[in-house]
Structure formats: structure tokens, C-alpha cells
Amino acid sequence: MKLEKLALRGRISLQFAVTVTFMVMLVLTLGAIITLQMSNQGKMLKNLSNKVISAEVAAVRSDLNIFLRAPALANRMAAVLLTEQYSNLDKDLSQFEAPFTHILEKIFPDQKHLSLISFGSIHGEYIAVSREILTNKFSLLLKDGRTGGSLNFYSGLKSTDSILHQFNPYDPRVRPWYAPVSRSKKTMWTTAYQDYDAIQGVTISFSSPLYDKNKKMIGVVASDIKLSNFNQYLKSSPNLGRGAIYIVDQHNELISHSSNEKRLPILSINELSKQDSATLLKAKDSSNEMVRMSAKFIENKEINDIEFNLGDEKIYGRVFKLADDNGLNWRIVILIPERDLLGDLIKDMMVTLAIVLCIGLIAALAAWKILASITKPILLAAQTAKLLAKQEWQPTIAGGLQLKETTLLANAFDEMSSALSSSFEQLNYRIRHDQVTGLLSREGLREEMSELVKKDAASKWDALLLIGLDNYRSIHDSIGYDQGEELLCAIVNNLKQHLPEQALFARVADTEFVICMDIDVGKICMTELIQGILDSFTQSFHLQYDEVLISASLGVVSARFNHLDLIDNLRNASMALNKAKGKGASSYEIFQSDMVEQSTQKIHLISELNAAIEKNEFRVYFQPVVRLSDSKVIGAEALVRWQSGQRGLVSPGLFIPLAEESGLILPIGHWVLRESCRQIAERLKNGWASDFDVHVNVSVRQLIQSDFYQVLEATLQEFDLPPHNLTLEITESILIEDSNVIATLIGRIRSLGVEIAIDDFGTGYSSMSYLHQFAFDCLKIDQSFVSRFLDNHKSEAIVSAIIRLAGGFDVPLVAEGVETAEQAQRLLELGCQRAQGYYFGRPIPLEDWPAVWCGSGKSEPLS
């Protein structure tokens, strides 16, 4: 430590050097200020946009209220005039020509958007005064007794002026401005429609029903606004700039807009007469890109604020509603580009930023030489760190002006280099090797293959063997963790004796090992190798405290491959291993290409099986159980069937194992239990024999569920099924899973009154060992014994023994798979009480049962 202090004496500190340099480069502070200002720009822009748009919204709202008030005032004036002077007997409307002109020309001279005031009587007469917006010229439209039923467009304001256009026939009562008001008897804004005038523009009308002094309707008065006038009004907005304003109705159709859109197609007079409303342009079809992009936002009618990017520019918008009690239901959208809000602000900020950056650059250049000699050791330290990252564990720092801190840093790097070297080697070994057996890990196997290929690019392997231990889990639980590891090491040492010298050996999972061989393995040699590996498990393994016998299965891929194909071959070997385990312990299977397709089909079938639960495609079929002494139907076994919409009726032998494997047996089994109880409970209530017994199969996964007892109890209560009418069938395999737990659960189930039957009796290897442990109410002989017992003395002896065994336990016996009268007769002679099988009846839906079965009568043998 003293020598280290002497070496550091007289050197300036890094802290002091950096502090002095920082003061010289004060200009960098300006950069921080600018950064902060730029970060606040978005917030400032948001606030500014809100204020500007709010002001524009207020102005537009105020102007629109004034804009839309004129038609209502014009209607009131016309209504007062017509109420006092119009009579239902009038067929000549000349007395209203001058007053209508006066209202439009003198009272509303500046409201040029008010394009027309009209009146249509209940008899079909019509008078209107129209204004042309560009020339402010007025003209008369008339249909009364003088026009002979035609609608005349005059060049002036008198019926004596020349006729410009004439339409015949014309009935105002069917027009969109008249008909809705006539039906509702209410003042309203009409939908947009195409008018009969010279330009056939799109119009909206403020229409009011008109009554005489006796409160009798005499017609409809309407004031029109041309949407083209509306558009001109929006375009003239003083604050519009490059932005856009548009109005949409409840269907998001453009009522008015400030952009230049294509004109709607002009319809013929015949088409106009049949039209209730005009087909307007939708916002999403606008030629204005800003309007078009905003259309997706206004689909949500509750939205108020809009913000999106158009190219490299942000667009801000506001949506507000314009509605009244007269059916007006519009939304007004105002869009303002960012550039309109900020003007030259961004440009000025960029100029300022450029100036500040120039100042900073000059300061940085001035400080460059000062910092060069100070930072050189630090740069060398950074280069040293890179060397450490490349696993070069002997770095050195030299040259430059070394400060106290850089000297300490160099010493720390030397110490770290030594520590990292040791730690990395240990870590690399742990990654590449299994900690228990010392074999290569999955990652280690890949790296080992890659290194061999680097040395010899032609390196390939001829076979891959995946070894899976069959019953390691249960053995491990019984012998403990330490001896479990000892067993694995013993297995590995034993396997090494059967492997070729150049084989790669790895542990890729808890109970799986991989062998890759790069020798030319022929068919006979491969078979001998596989058999040798399997034979190595025939002898027990002697551990410290126990002697253990364990078996294994093999999945084999026999094809030449390189290191890039390792993962695919591991997958293929896994498929082969799964198939081998399906054949039983100590089996092997060589991978075939069709296994991939089978695996894919299996995945698809599981997916369809899952969907079948949601689609309710399962059905319960019932096969009768008869009493052999009189062939009387005393019960039934519930059997699930899958009526697939794609595959038709799927065999239970195909989907039940998949349901067990995937866990779908739980919802399926729960459904079968409920549906069976429901159907039988209904029949019992309708007069079936009170001792009728339904048998329902229960899988091991169902039975070991923690809530199975509660589900069973709730099902019986829900359908009011007496417990003695239900028998649960369990297989022998369930009884050897966890005898204590199963015995307790069976006791609770029987305490409910539900009976327990042992299904497929005689097929288990431990049949006799568990019978004294479990309480049960019925035995079922597996059909494999019944099908051949007439022709096989051994099978008959087994059947006879099981019948006597059941008699000794004083429980009834059911023989499954009875297909002939001879079988039924012989079983009765041997003392079997009950049977089921195709001879008595196939499984069918309960509603299809013959009447004789439903009354618990005799089952007629099938032909």
C-alpha cells in the first residue's frame, strides 16, 4: 500500500481535471438548456394548439349559429304571412310573390346562403323565391292554377316573365323538404337532397308545418341553404390557413367542407323525383388528404380531440357537436397544421440552435487539445476493457498522462483479469456440461459440434439416439435427491461402455440423454448397438443404500446430418421416443418421415377436440346392462361419442387417449357425468324403475382432482338424482396410483350412496393386491376374456375364477362384450349375474331406446 501511495503522489486527480475542463466548456450548459427547451416544445405546442383551436371553435360555432338562424327567421315570417292570407280554396298564389321576394331581398339581403323561401300547400300548389349567390339575382318558382300543373322557373320575379325551365309533373308533397314534415307535423332540418333548380345543387331545408287559424294544416313552408354556399362560407374562415373545416352528419357524410371536392353527379329529373336524400361524399373519400386521414378518428362519435401526423407535420384537430331540437345532428371538425400554429417559430429556433451549436463546436475544438493528454489513459482503459470482453486476460495500460484514478484503474483491471479468467472458465464449463453427470449439455453439444466443424468442414454424424428413462421420476422420489444423482452417474458410466469412441454423449433433459455418432453405422451394427444399450438396463444398479432397477426407451434418427440439423433431429428423435414409450418400457423406435405428419395431425385433432367442447359436439350413448337370469334391463353404461362437424362420428379409441394426454378429459368427463345424470334423472321422474343404475366411467385425472367430490355432490343435487342410481366405473390403474389418497376418496364417494365399480378387472398386474384395501360395489370382467372364453379353457378358467372371487366379496359381476347367446348362457351357468354387449344392445342415445328397455323390460337379442 505504501508503494502504491508513493506511485500516486504528485499526480493530479481526474476529478480536478474534469472540473477545470467543465468550466472552460461552459458552453455545453447551453446545450442542456436547448435540450430542455426542445423537450418542452411538444407540451408548449399542445397548449398553443388547444388555445388556437378553442378560439377557432368559438368563432365557428358563433358564426354557424347566426348562419343557421336565418332559415328559421325566414320561416317564421313566411308562416305569419301565409296564416293570415292563405285559404284552402286558393288556387292562385300570386298574392305571395311580392311578400316572399321582400323577405328574401329586403329582410335578408346579406344572408346570401339563404338561397330559397318556399311554400307547398296540401293541395300541391307551390311558390318559391330563389336567390343566385354569385349575382344576387332573384327569380320566381311557381306551380298553381295558372301553370297547368307544371313547375315553372321564371327569369324574374313575376309570373309574366319568361320561363327558363318547366317540369311536369311536379308535386311538392313528395319532395324531401315536404314529406317528412307532413308525416311528423314537426319543424325539422331535412337531410341533404338534390334540388330541381338550374344547377341541381345539393340542398338542406329548414321546414315547418303551417296551420290556419283553426289549427288545420294547410301546407309546409321551407327555407333552403345550398351546400355549395355553405362550402364558400367555410372557405372564407379568416383563420383557416392551410387547415380544413368540415361538417359531417350522423352517417359521417360531408354536409359542408372548406376543401375543393369533386362535384356530385347530376341526376335526371326522373331520378330526382324518386330520391329521398342525396348521396354525399364521405370524409374517408375526400380528395383532401388531411380530411381523409382524420376520417378514421371521427368514426368514434365520442371523440373530441384529434392528433395525427401528415408526412413530417403534426395535425391538430377538434370535434364539436352542433345540434338542436329540430333534428339537426352535425359534428364540426376543425384541423390546423402545426406550421399554421407556430409560423416561423420553429425556423427561428433552428437558427438559434445552429448558432449555439457553432459556439459549442468552437469551445469543443479549443478544449480538444487540453483533454487529449488527460483522456488518453482513459481511452487506453476502454481498449483494455474490450480486450477483457474478448477473453484476453493479460491486459496492460501504458502511455499518456496517468492520473491517480487511471493508475488505480490499471491495477483494478489486472486483478479483474485474473478473477474473470477463472470465473469465465468455470461458467463456460457449467454452461457446456451437466453438473451431475459431467456430460455435455444441450448447448455444450451444439458448441462441440460447431468446433469440430471448424476443424474439419466435412464433419458429419450418421445417427442420433435419444435415450429416455422410463420410471426415473418415481424412483427418484423414493430414493431421494442424493441417491437419484448417484443413479444417473451409474447409468452414464454403464452407457459409456457401449458407445463407439468418437460418439458425442450429452444430457439434454432431466431424464433424457443424446448420443451422436460419426461412424458409418450399418443396419445390423445399429440394431446391435441399440440392443446393447437396452440390455445395459436389465441389471440393477447398486447404490450406496439401495439397489435399483430402471428401464429406458430409445428414439433413433438414422440419417447423415451436420451440426446445423441438430435441433431438427432432436425433435425427430423425441417423436420417435414418444412412440417407443407408447409400446411399453425398454422399447425403441426409428424415426420415419410420416411421424411428423402424424404429430401434426395429432396437434390438429387436439385443437378440434378443444373446439368440440365449445361447439357442444359430444353426445352420450347408453348401452343396456341386463340381468342374465331373466334378460331384464336393470341399468346402462354411459359412453361418450364425438359427432364432429368435420370428421363425422370419431372413434372414442382415437380421441379419448388424446383427451387424457392433453388434459381435455377433465371438461369432457365433467360434461359426461352431468349429462348422464341429467338424462337418467329425467327418465326416473317419468316412471322408470327406481333401481335403474347408470354406470359412468371416471378417468384417473378426474378422480384425483381436489374438487371432484364437491362436483359429484353438486351434480346429484342439481338434477335431484338419487345417489344409489349412479355407479362410477374406475380402472385398476387408478387404484395403484396413490392407494391411500384413492382409498380415502372412494370411501367419501360411497358415503354419499354412490356405488363404485372396478372396470376391466383382470387386466392389471396387481389385481389381487389391492382388493382388500378398497371398498367397491361391483366388478366388471374385461371383454378380452369374455370374447374367447368359450374356445379357450384358460380364458374360461379365468372368468370362472373372477366370478367366484366376486361371489366371495359378495358383489355383483358384470361381463362386458357379450356378443352371442352361447356366451350369455355359459356366463349364467358359471354364476355371472349381469352382462352387457352387442348381443343385448349397442350403445345408442337414450331417446332411441326401444320401449321394452325404457320400461326396464327384457332386452331382445339383436339379429
Note down, in words, how this protein is organized.
This protein is α+β, with helices and mostly antiparallel strands and 863 residues long. The protein has 28 helices and 30 strands. Strands 1, 2, 3, 4, 5, 6, 7, 8 and 9 form a nine-stranded antiparallel beta sheet that branches. Strands 22-23-25-26-27-28-29-30 form an eight-stranded mixed β-barrel, surrounded by five helices. A five-stranded antiparallel beta sheet has the order 11-10-14-13-12, sandwiched between helices. It is flat, with a radius of gyration of 47 Å. The termini are far apart.
Characteristics of this structure?
alpha+beta; 863 residues; flat
What is this entry, summarized?
By secondary structure, this protein is of the alpha+beta class.
Layout of helices and strands, plus pairs?
Blueprint lengths: L1 H7 L5 H11 L2 H59 L11 H11 L6 E8 L4 E7 L4 E7 L7 E4 L8 E5 L11 H6 L3 E2 L3 E2 L7 E10 L5 E10 H9 L8 E5 L5 E4 L11 H5 L15 H10 L6 E6 L2 E11 L5 E9 H5 L2 H45 L14 H29 L9 H14 L7 E7 L2 H8 L1 H16 L7 E6 L2 E6 L5 H13 L5 E2 L4 E2 L3 E6 L8 H18 L4 E3 L3 H22 L2 E10 L4 E13 L3 E3 L1 H11 L2 H21 L7 E5 L2 H4 L4 H12 L6 E6 H4 L3 H13 L3 E7 L5 H4 L7 E4 L1 H4 L6 H16 L4 E3 L5 H10 L3 E2 L15 H4 L9
Parallel strand pairs: 20-21, 23-25, 25-26, 26-27, 27-28, 28-29, 29-30
Antiparallel strand pairs: 1-2, 1-9, 2-3, 3-4, 4-5, 6-8, 7-8, 8-9, 10-11, 10-14, 12-13, 13-14, 15-17, 15-20, 16-17, 18-19, 22-23, 22-30, 23-24
Helix pairs in contact: 2-10, 3-4, 3-10, 10-11, 13-14, 17-18, 19-21
